[in-house]
Amino acid sequence: MASLKNLHEPNTNLGNALHTNFDVDYVIDYRFATTSKSQAVAQFTKLIEALSDAGLATEVRNGDNGAVLVFVKAASETRLRAEVYRSRVQDWLYGVRSAAPEKDMRKSLDEEPMTEAERLRIVHLLITKPKAERGAGITPKSGEWENVESIFALHDHKFNKEWIKDLGSKYLLNSEDLTKIRDRFGEKIAFYFAFLQSYFLFLTFPAGFGFCSWVILGQYSPWYAIINGLWCIFFVEYWKKQETDLAVEWGVRGVSRIQHKRPNFRHERVIKDPVTGEEIKFYPATKRLTRQLLQVPFAIFASLVLGSLIALCFSIEVFISEVYDGPFKSYLVFLPTVLLTLIMPISSTLLTGFASKLTDFENYETTDAHEAAMVSKIFVLNFITSYLPIFLTAFVYVPFAQIIVPYLDVLQVTVRPFAEDEKQMTAPKSEFQINPDRLKKQIIYFTVTAQIVNFGMEIAVPYLSRRFSRKVKEIKADRTTNNGASGDAADDHPEEAAFLARVRNEAELSVYDVTTDLREMVVQFGYLSLFSVIWPLTAVSFLINNWIELRGDALKIAVQTQRPVPWRADSIGPWLNALGFLSWLGSLTTAAIVYLFSGDGLGPDGNPRDIKGWGLLLTIFFSEHIYLGVQLGVRTALGKIDSPGLQRERAERFTIRRQYLQDSLGQEAAEEEKAAEGVTLAKQTIGRNILEEEARQSTLQGHGTPEERFWKRQQGPSETIAIGKMYIEKAASAATEAKESKKEL
């Protein structure tokens, strides 16, 4: 009976492993497939030592495809609590907190326990902060840490399952739901969900009014244009207030002032701040400005490349649909769409990569400044790709079709193989009629069809890709087993097997970037602000899409990507400026579209002589000035003006911060160092057999929890290094044998 009991124990442990993270804070995916064995071992040793010096405990396990997984957690709860307390004191000193924490660290943390997001954020900072700031200085894929593929936290699958189920059962999110997201994933992601929720609620008005306008007023209604413009202004200004309220409620107002230094920042020299006397890393502002000016030729170049591509495909589409009258016309009309589908992603990817390199070249000191610069470039690219086709139709095709279309005969080469004679490819000399439905069809495509396609690309494609990659991995594992070689999971302890399989799968997931989802919502807002007067049901489409989008984004975070680092934020960042810009631009485009198309809805029928230039300019002029009369846009500029009083305030705050840190944290810092020294064990060499035997005995005897046994399999950093070296050497030998067997074949 005892033997039967022991046989059933692994199955129980297997089930438990699927519902626990073994107290792991982060996993470091260390890949060495393209590195020599000696270099891989040396860098791995340096990695473990750096983590240990930063007060972090480590365990190593085998990974997939020439990789090892380094599991990291805070070695000392005392050190972790001290870092959390230090962070809260820093918040108070920078004005983020209104009241100072209790000077008794234990009492302070008992009264306000740390959240899971706070713990993960602090541990991540310990891993990534420079050594001069008491961190390990690990920067994935950069510099000496190029073999560190990623640093990610493990998903809480129990919470994720309940979270997704809860979102699917309710129509709206309440404050408790947002607080739950903030405590798990950080304020940055919570702000995105709060923005999406507010945007969704606000859409109910333009959706209802738009439906009534579509039924009663029709398209190009001046009344709809006025109401929609006022709604855009009100929403943007309301969200600014809502951001402040949420930041105060979540205790992060002004947290953007606590800037995280970029590890890739390259300073020229170290100087003393003339006001505070603090030593700072200096990079000349004039030199950065010179580099920033390269954004102008980049924007021009991107506009020319993407604009020319879109204009060419637009012209081909007009030629085929309006001029060509030969065979296969119904099929050839999709040729421009195919060209855009094939070429546009490649062009956008190349330009985005160039924008990223240009942003790195500009050498920003902080992550926030770097992100803002990158967002501005991405916004330019998305503005061109998203809105230019509609601008061409509204302000080029409709007003000037009579002049332009006859010159499109140069595009005969695109359909010549299918035409039967020249007449089928020649524009009519008279009685040319523009297509009055072209503009509305474009809006419907971008606001309905494209939204559905994008949602499928976000959810379905990653899911299918992940299933395919897992199937390929299973086939490779079966082949490896059949060939007599041991697989990556051969050394896994039975108690950890299911857990490690889950970790290896999570290591292959993509990294979640909330900026991508924010960009999608801002671009959507642009369609509503700029062009919804063409099709008043635009807001109805967005209302339905965004209800699904919120739950789809939650599913993406929980299932399809690695768990994001819970960074803090006090707003949606630079995207707020993009919202303001689109709202302002909407006052111009909407006024112009109403002037051109109001009445019969056909516009000037392709004849520019029917357009009164002075009337168009006067309409735009009045519309903009009415907008500027409502919009309050000077607060940010005034807040950035420095003065002697502000300099004095900065000097006094710096003095207070330094004195407070010395007085209140001196004792805790000494206790931290003592605790950190206590967790560092003497180096010793223990073989794999001894470790596994000890772990097996502990498992059989039932001593401790699975989490405790997980962290006791390797006693200290020296054993972690030894086991990691063994994994690396074993993987290198297997790779060599595989190459030799291929040569023999």
UniProtKB/TrEMBL annotation:
<dbReference type="GO" id="GO:0005254">
    <property type="term" value="F:chloride channel activity"/>
</dbReference>
<protein>
    <submittedName>
        <fullName>Plasma membrane stress response protein-like protein</fullName>
    </submittedName>
</protein>
<feature type="transmembrane region" description="Helical">
    <location>
        <begin position="189"/>
        <end position="216"/>
    </location>
</feature>
<dbReference type="InterPro" id="IPR007632">
    <property type="entry name" value="Anoctamin"/>
</dbReference>
<dbReference type="InterPro" id="IPR049452">
    <property type="entry name" value="Anoctamin_TM"/>
</dbReference>
<feature type="domain" description="Anoctamin alpha-beta plait">
    <location>
        <begin position="23"/>
        <end position="148"/>
    </location>
</feature>
<feature type="transmembrane region" description="Helical">
    <location>
        <begin position="575"/>
        <end position="597"/>
    </location>
</feature>
<feature type="transmembrane region" description="Helical">
    <location>
        <begin position="525"/>
        <end position="544"/>
    </location>
</feature>
<feature type="transmembrane region" description="Helical">
    <location>
        <begin position="222"/>
        <end position="239"/>
    </location>
</feature>
<keyword id="KW-1133">Transmembrane helix</keyword>
<keyword id="KW-0472">Membrane</keyword>
<dbReference type="InterPro" id="IPR049456">
    <property type="entry name" value="Anoctamin_N_fung"/>
</dbReference>
<feature type="region of interest" description="Disordered">
    <location>
        <begin position="696"/>
        <end position="715"/>
    </location>
</feature>
<dbReference type="GO" id="GO:0032541">
    <property type="term" value="C:cortical endoplasmic reticulum"/>
</dbReference>
<keyword id="KW-0812">Transmembrane</keyword>
<feature type="transmembrane region" description="Helical">
    <location>
        <begin position="379"/>
        <end position="400"/>
    </location>
</feature>
<dbReference type="Pfam" id="PF04547">
    <property type="entry name" value="Anoctamin"/>
</dbReference>
<feature type="transmembrane region" description="Helical">
    <location>
        <begin position="296"/>
        <end position="320"/>
    </location>
</feature>
<dbReference type="Pfam" id="PF20877">
    <property type="entry name" value="Anoctamin_N"/>
</dbReference>
<feature type="domain" description="Anoctamin transmembrane">
    <location>
        <begin position="181"/>
        <end position="652"/>
    </location>
</feature>
<feature type="transmembrane region" description="Helical">
    <location>
        <begin position="443"/>
        <end position="464"/>
    </location>
</feature>
<dbReference type="GO" id="GO:0016020">
    <property type="term" value="C:membrane"/>
</dbReference>
<feature type="transmembrane region" description="Helical">
    <location>
        <begin position="332"/>
        <end position="358"/>
    </location>
</feature>
